[in-house]
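Reopening closed ticket. The problem is back. First fold of the pair:
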Amino acid sequence: MFTPRRRIAASTDPDVGLRAVASLRALTGRLEIVQVENARKLGWSWQDIAGRLGVTKQTVHRKHGKRTRSR
């Protein structure tokens, strides 16, 4: 028997699948914000954060720099 999450993942209905993808993107976006803020508060460099996220330092700074600068 499939759990509700497994039903969504196994669905062949694009509406169900794409809504799930959108929800996951929103969740991961919020999680990234929280964790980047935590890392900066603990003194992590932009390079350290970027390395963990698998992006360049410039990318992570451009995305999160304004939000964390005032803290």
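Second fold of the pair, where the issue appears:
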Amino acid sequence: MEIEINDQQNFSVIKLNKKSILGNEGVEFQNSVLTTLDKGVNEILIDLSMVEYITSWGIGMLVHAFTTTTNRNAKFVLTGVGEKVFEILSKVRLNSVFTIREAF
């Protein structure tokens, strides 16, 4: 899985450059989140603008990252969420758990 980390002044963006998130990317994704948090970042934006489909395993990957980030007193934000991915998140009511912003 291709992951880009872009550090800004007040936050970091982790961009997932893949059309489908199946969940087998979990270790690499979680390592990216942990590496970013270890830098002392207070807000992580997960850019899903390339993602068109996400499985339950992929959702679990996001929930795990959300929990890790929240436990470290940092903000976890999803950005660039497409219509299909948003529908899936809504069905499992995670749209009310995650902070979701338009692409920045």
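Update: turned out to be a display glitch only; the data is intact. The chain has one domain: 3-101. The longest strand covers residues 3-7. Please close again.
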